[in-house]
Write a structure and sequence with these properties.
Layout lengths: L4 H11 L4 E4 L6 H10 L3 E4 L3 H15 L3 E5 L3 H4 L2 H9 L4 E7 L15 H4 L6 E4 L3 H18 L2 E7 H4 L23 H12 L4 E5 L7 H11 L3 E3 L4 H4 L6 E4 L5 E2 L1 H7 L2 E5 L14 E6 L13 E4 L2 H8 L10 H17 L1 H4 L10 H10 L5 E4 L3 H9 L7 E4 L9 H11 L5 E6 H6 L4 H6 L5 E6 L4 H9 L14 H7 L3 E5 L5 H10 L4 E6 L13 H16 L3 H11 L4
Helix pairs in contact: 1-2, 3-5, 3-18, 16-23
This protein binds thiamine diphosphate and magnesium ion.
């Protein structure tokens, strides 16, 4: 049988260990899907929207560290991938995107469905090339996959349908992908000034990001020796929060605990594997040192007294014998006390659930954390689910939490859960969805039913674009266009043949979640929550308070006094 470029593509995917390709079939992509059908070793996952496919591939890649693949047909088909690819790329998730393309003879003529994917995907990839000749194919594919796997992010091949269908000789020589990272760390000469800084500082604080993914034990051992509070970013959470007696929570607008205070009261702040972007939350007074394997991250947020290029775990292992154990733990103790107190305040709605409806979301997230499996995979939608997941989902050694943490796009949670569940069929996967986020890519609940994926979709149904409602309040703007008129999502789930559980009453939270999480198939839990539940950051800047006051003033002036009372009553216990 004739061997086409598309057949060669599939052989190379098999060789690279790819198990699935997410996408929607169509025209120019036909040779590729046909080759997948014939080969039979790679599964085509038929999503309802290509953006879902890109998110799902990104989730697979983030969780497994292995190459994942998505595909879109020419023009609009691959254009739909783009937001999910931005997310994957900015999460350093190794993803290959196959952007199929119009026939080569038509390129540049304003042909039906014509776009220029090689320009469109440039910004969301390390490598993106058009394959216009079969002889080019093998090397371009290799470079796209190698850049995705090696640099962490997206590689794109733009493959016209006619080229995909052209015959080429089967090639059994291999060009293997190199996926492992070098165990790079600074030498003793570069480490010495860092050891000096640490030894001459009384109060050292660690702030840990995703770069600490394999450095839990090193971070904790260092914190113990130097008596350091350990704060973390959202992406760092699941890797450093568990089994860590020195944990002081998270910084940033969604933050909690004593991380902000510790970072501002220390005399040396060590930024470890973090690219935390919010300058306002970073201190300027203490000395700052940063360690990162991504050299372009060094010094791009804070002015550094010392930057070291290296893997966090390797660097700490080498550094540890060079630093003196500190005997005075009073700063650490004070921060841990402050953290405990802050958690106590954060838990007022959990400790005093009450009977009020619509209910607060915090007890829901807390119950979810308690009931979920110790190795559950959580995905969290952009919006208030970021707050509930970062604060109330407890990290364990084996749990994972992913979201659109760098790109910050809505509607990521359900698609990411699809990728997570397909990649880890034996693990519990929980999508913490906003009602806005869920509805945005709602069509792909049909992918959940089509593949009978036992995902548990928990919708925090506050009938609002809640995060934006809060942003408007903070900015002193009256609430505008944030309300959502929703159906009963549980009934909607039942209509498409999956378990639907509607929770309207605080007393039903635990039993409702239990019922759904114990169910062996897919389940949707529609939890009706308070649209006025706002979250205040641990550090409230004066201008934010002014903003809050202003909104209240404007609401009163516009006759919404009942809403003002409601909001104050709802949130007063936070302040
Ligand atoms: C694709 C996209 N559109 C708009 C936004 C701006 N935005 C951020 S959060 C949010 C509201 C999310 O609402 P919902 O999913 O209901 O979650 P909630 O905050 O209410 O919990 C919006 C509109 C975004 N981040 N991404
Ligand atoms: Mg909402």
């Amino acid at each position: 049988m004739a061997h086409r470029v598309a057949d060669e593509l599939v052989s190379r995917l098999v060789e690279a260990g790819v198990e699935r390709v997410y996408g929607v079939v169509g025209d120019s992509l036909n040779p590729v899907t046909d080759a997948l059908r014939i080969n039979g070793k790679v599964r085509w996952i038929h999503v309802r929207h290509e953006e879902t496919g890109a998110y799902a591939a990104g989730a697979e890649a983030q969780l497994s560290g292995k190459l994942a693949v998505c595909a879109g047909s020419c023009g609009p088909g691959n254009l739909h991938l783009i937001n999910g690819l931005f997310d994957a790329h900015r999460s350093n998730a190794p993803v290959l995107a196959i952007a199929s393309h119009i026939p080569t003879s038509e390129i540049g003529t304003g042909y039906f469905q014509e776009t220029h994917p090689e320009s469109l995907f440039k910004e969301c990839s390390h490598y993106c090339e058009l394959i216009s000749n079969p002889k080019q194919f093998e090397r371009v594919l290799h470079m796209a996959m190698q850049s995705a796997v090696g640099r962490g992010g997206v590689g794109v091949i733009v493959l016209p349908g006619d080229v995909a269908g052209m015959e080429i000789p089967a090639d059994d020589s291999t060009r293997s992908l190199v996926g492992h990272r070098p165990a790079g760390r600074p030498g003793e000469k570069e480490l010495a000034p860092l050891a000096d800084l640490i030894n001459s500082s009384k109060k050292v604080v660690l702030f840990c990001g995703i770069g600490c993914a394999n450095a839990h034990d090193e971070v904790v051992a260092f914190a113990e020796k130097v008596k350091s509070p350990v704060g973390h970013s959202y992406r760092g959470k699941t890797f450093v929060e568990y089994d860590n007696p020195f944990d002081v929570g998270m910084s940033g607008l969604l933050g909690f605990g004593a991380a902000y205070q510790a970072m501002h009261e220390c005399d040396l702040l060590l930024l470890l594997g973090t690219d935390f972007p919010y300058e306002k939350f970073l201190p300027t007074k203490p000395k700052i040192a940063q360690v990162d394997i991504r050299v372009d991250h060094l010094g791009r947020r804070s002015k550094l007294d010392l930057g070291l290029w290296g893997d966090v775990g390797e660097t700490i292992r080498a550094l540890l014998p060079m630093v003196n154990a500190k005997s005075n733990g009073s700063f650490l103790d004070a921060m841990l006390r402050k953290h405990k107190e802050s958690l106590r305040r954060l838990n007022v709605y959990v400790d005093h659930v009450g009977k009020r409806t619509p209910m607060h979301p915090e007890p829901v997230a807390t119950a979810l954390s308690e009931i979920a499996a110790p190795d559950a995979i959580f995905t969290a939608d952009t919006g208030m689910c970021n707050v509930w997941s970062s604060r109330y989902i407890r990290a364990t050694k084996d749990r994972r939490l992913i979201g659109s943490f760098t790109h910050g796009s809505m509607a990521n949670a359900l698609p990411q859960a699809i990728g997570a569940q397909l990649c880890y069929p034996g693990r519990q996967v929980i999508s913490m969805s906003g009602d806005g986020g869920f509805a945005m890519l709602m069509g792909d609940i049909l992918t959940v039913t089509q593949y009978n994926l036992p995902i548990k979709i928990v919708i925090f149904n506050n009938s609002a674009l809640g995060m934006v409602k809060l942003e408007m309040a903070v900015a002193g703007l009256p609430d505008y266009q944030t309300d959502l008129k929703n159906p009963n999502f549980a009934k909607l789930a039942e209509a498409i043949g999956i378990m639907g559980v509607r929770i309207e009453n605080p007393a039903d939270v635990t039993s409702g979640l239990n019922k759904a999480l114990r169910h062996s198939g897919p389940a949707l839990i529609d939890v009706v929550t308070d649209p006025n539940a706002v979250s205040l950051p641990p550090h409230i800047a004066p201008e934010m308070v002014v903003g809050f006051g202003l909104t209240m003033g404007k609401l009163v002036l516009s006759g919404h006094i009942d809403e003002v009372v409601d909001t104050i009553e709802t949130n007063i216990r936070h302040i």
